[in-house]
Amino acid sequence: MTIDDLRVFTAVCQAGSLSAVARDLSCTQSAVSQHVKRLEKATGVRLLDRHPDGVTPTPEGLVLLAAATDGITALDQAIRRLGDFARGEAGAVRITTGPTTIRHFMSTAITDFRRHYPQATLDFRTITSTRDCFAALIAGTVDLAWVTIHGPVPGIEQRPVLDLPWVLATRADHPIAALPTLTPPDLAALRHIRLPQNSASRQHLDTALTRLGVHLPSETGATDWNTAVLLTELGVGHAVVPNLPYEAAEASTAPLRFLPLPFLPPLPVGWAVRSWSTLTPLARAFAELVDRRSPLRQPQ
Fold this sequence. Notes:
By secondary structure, this protein is an alpha/beta fold. It is built from 11 helices and 12 strands. 45% of the residues lie in helices and 21% in strands. The strands form 4 sheets. Strands 4-3-5-12-6 form a 5-stranded mixed β-sheet, with helices on both faces. Strands 10-7-11 form a 3-stranded antiparallel β-sheet. Strands 1-2 form a two-stranded antiparallel ribbon. A hairpin with a 2-residue loop joins strand 1 and strand 2 (54-57).
């Protein structure tokens, strides 16, 4: 049994065809079949069911497929990381973020990182949901993910960096902007711009509001915090968002107000990784710079 045998076997299971894998590898179908036969001989079980239109893994094959997929992914990731270790300060750091992350959380750290590691590469990949960020980490396609912190996630280590208070974004000419303080019932009387149902920040907010007995009617959806604030500026509705330095408020001809909502628990955000102990020195250095240099961190 070899790594090549396992790679071919996983490819066959994914393609459902020996001939398709043979074409992809520029070899004969018989050569592909030999890889599978070696695995079946080594394990003592049949791994594939043959059908007129292709192949499917047997129950035993599914067990091997799951283990092989995890093992190959981990091995490929380790080889890439070893390459980054060998390249030292000329390596790459792959970060997945949401669309508002870089400006609000990483701008100063990116400048410092580029100054200290001029030969290194920062590769940013936009992923809009925390769940998909976790999937990218598990697949080994990224090193670091900036996420809304969840409860425990198998195979993922999370490190909170900031707690973001919630505010209500409203136009300054709306009557609610003149209230000295807001209470939970005040929110229920407004037209709201809501984040996607599957976003982690939306789930965090909905859980907190449910505990307070508040249901927010929503008539408009937004893809991210900045878009929700922009729609508020345009008079579409109101938005409950984390307290960030939104540019829309600075440039608006009808200034916005961001009213504190102290009755809502803050939103924890920070890093998620497969394992802190196996991060390359460059990835660890970037994460630590963001931890220290975030524009939103309060001075000590």
